[in-house]
Amino acid sequence: MAADLIQTRPARELLLRLPLLPTSPDLRIDYEAANPDVLLALADSAETVIATLNHGLSAVGIILAHASPEVGSEIGSDTIESLGWFIGEASDMAATLLSFAIACRHHTADYTLPKPDRAPVARF
Question: Which pTM value belongs to this model?
Fold first, then answer.
């Protein structure tokens, strides 16, 4: 049950797994020393969050286009300003996550998942 919950919350999963990454002395992510399974999970989560952010930003843009004063909307300028700051921050987050996901994928390009051992055939 808990595994299903984590898969439906990619941003939460991403934030909970980020502390698992080792860092170098200059405080950069040490991708070479990182567990490849963690890198793959982080890349998956980051890509899902990017898609969610992009779809949400698109929806906000459509809503704003239909909420213009010419259409008869009475949305205050402070609300529009707040949405502008939100769009800017969400876009920066998506761009940063894209770079992060690419780095995770790059450092696991030659990694193959371990093959599970086959269970012996049951005999009755």
Answer: 0.78
